[in-house]
Design goal:
There is one protein chain. The chain has about 500 residues and is an alpha+beta fold. The protein contains 8 helices and 24 strands. The strands form 5 sheets. It has a 7-stranded mixed beta sheet, with helices on one face. β6 and β7 form a beta hairpin. The structure holds fe (iii) ion and calcium ion (CA). Calcium ion (CA) binds next to loops.
């Protein structure tokens, strides 16, 4: 660990444990930066810096100063500015420094109301034409607060990562579980105030704060940032005013995440779809499979949301008109495959590979309707389009299913010899609970394209990428119910740029 990294992590911990130790804070003050700091959306000359002021009696508009330095002692400050944190937006700050140098690390901090925040480390992306780029990143998802501790984040923060890609379920809207190891504030989330409180509860965790302070994040949401299994403007319980609910949820999401001001939601709409070119190494495509999707077919009676159904009982599963991404986003992706860089990384929410829960012989099988299996013709279109354009190095990254999966992606799963057209790494949950391992083991026989499937592991995946190879590590905590849990690498895979499909390493 470098000195600066150790100081950074200690700084983040000290803020939570002992706010009176923060430089310039007056002893009598309540902590104003109790939810930490974050950065996100790096590009070649800047990124977004985030914080949110906390504590009682905040004025309606509070000036917040920020600065960016080339060193963690802030001797060499290269950018600074001021934002106004407004009560209407939860006193959140989304600062957007520009004119920074490409491909280098920076440190940042905020000042407001006589207090100073912890120091965060962030970086810019390489210029899109930079030849020698490499990328170290992790994917993570599903961090239900009450059922575990964030040991996984403590370990992720100690890896030397350029980027964290958070792939959804940052919060859960549920009340405290019967299996909880720590209590949530508040019950089931329904109002804007509830969503704000739920984010604040998560962001009070020092290990999560340390992971945000260690490097910039790219984020996409999944369902629980709004409600389990929601689809577009349809809620799980077919609530009459779901648009209001989605507007409140998206607003709280933007308030708490390092997205730019331009992404601020208008009513119930917020664009998170985007792209980042990392030098000449990779194009990262960020997808939204919640906001624009067709509702799940064959739900339980009187309900929206997911179900697990046999194809023969639910012919609508094969309806080619249905889409998971929405027609516009699907076209945007099909038109945007990068044909010049060796890698196309697709950061999205859920498992893309087919996972049939019964033997799919004779065109049958049994599928979970919320994931890509519920939209199989749309999956086929996406993968066929990538194959047809000969998009190089397509690697699909996901979460949502609370299991580590490594898989071959094929446009046609009914034909056993169909070519592998892309690779998939779908990370398990940081904490959220899963289904029995025996159920996955039983299904392996008729899902031969799935090379690794572990529902009994909590953690994340970390990757090293260069022009020739992707190296993947399946990271697993010993016990997500303990804050002091250790971590191990349970499996290693590589993908060669010249050949789609993960290989054991
Ligand atoms: Fe989840
Ligand atoms: Ca989910």
């Amino acid at each position: 660990m470098t000195t600066s990294r150790r100081r950074l992590l200690q700084g983040a911990a000290a803020l939570v444990a002992a706010p009176w130790l923060v430089p310039q804070a007056r002893a009598a003050d309540v902590p104003r930066f109790a939810l930490g700091i974050a950065s996100g959306q790096p590009h070649a000359d800047g990124m977004v810096l985030w914080t949110r002021l906390t504590g009682p009696e905040l004025p309606g508009r509070v000036p917040v100063r920020w600065e960016v330095a080339r060193d963690d002692a802030f001797r060499d400050v290269v950018a600074k500015g001021e934002e106004v944190a407004e009560a209407d937006w939860s006193h959140s700050v989304h600062a957007e420094p520009a004119g920074l140098e490409p491909a280098r690390w920076y440190w940042y901090r905020f000042d407001a109301l006589g207090q100073r925040s912890a120091v965060g480390r962030t970086r810019t992306a390489p210029r899109p034409d930079a030849a020698a780029a490499t990328l170290a990143f992790a994917i993570a998802s599903c961090q239900r607060y009450d059922v575990g501790w964030y040991a996984a984040w403590r370990h992720a923060a100690a890896e030397d990562l350029d980027l964290v890609m958070f792939l959804g379920d940052y919060i859960y809207e549920y009340g405290t579980s019967a299996k909880a190891v720590r209590k949530l504030e508040g019950g089931r989330v329904e109002t804007l105030a509830d969503y704000r409180l739920r984010y604040a509860t998560h962001k009070s965790d020092p290990d999560l704060q340390a992971a945000h302070a260690a490097c910039p994040w790219l984020l996409v949401w999944d369902d629980h940032e709004v409600e389990n299994d929601y689809a577009n403007l349809q809620g799980e319980f077919l609530e009459p005013d779901f648009r209001r609910r989605r507007a409140d949820a998206y607003r709280a999401y933007w308030e708490h995440m390092p997205f730019p001001k331009a992404a601020r939601p208008a009513d119930a709409d917020m664009r998170i779809t985007g792209r980042l070119d990392w030098g000449r190494l990779a194009r990262i495509h960020l997808l939204d499979d919640r906001q624009y999707r067709d509702p799940q077919v064959c739900p339980k009676p009187g309900r929206g949301g997911s179900n697990t159904v046999a194809l023969k009982d639910c012919p609508a599963l094969a309806d080619p008109k249905r889409t998971l991404l929405g027609a516009a986003q699907e076209q945007w992706l099909a038109d945007g495959w990068d044909l010049s860089r060796p890698w196309n990384l697709v950061a999205q929410q859920t498992l893309m590979a087919r996972m049939s829960w019964t033997d799919p012989k004779d065109g049958g099988g049994t599928y979970w309707t919320d994931g890509w299996d519920g939209y199989a013709p749309a999956r086929k279109r996406l993968l066929a389009a990538a194959a047809e354009r000969k998009a190089p190095g397509v690697v699909v990254l996901g979460g949502d299913v609370h299991s580590h999966y490594v898989a071959d992606l094929k446009a046609d799963y009914d034909e056993r010899d169909a070519p592998v057209v892309a690779s998939e790494f779908c990370g398990s949950s940081i904490t959220s609970l899963s289904q029995p391992q025996a159920r996955l083991d039983a299904a392996r026989a008729w899902n031969p394209h799935i090379r690794y499937a572990r529902s009994d592991q909590r953690g994340y995946m970390s990757f090293r990428l260069d022009a020739k190879q992707l190296q993947a590590q399946v990271r697993v905590v010993d016990d997500a119910r303990r804050a002091d849990s250790g971590i191990t690498t349970a499996a290693r895979y590589v993908v060669d740029a010249a050949r789609p499909g993960p290989q054991p390493a």
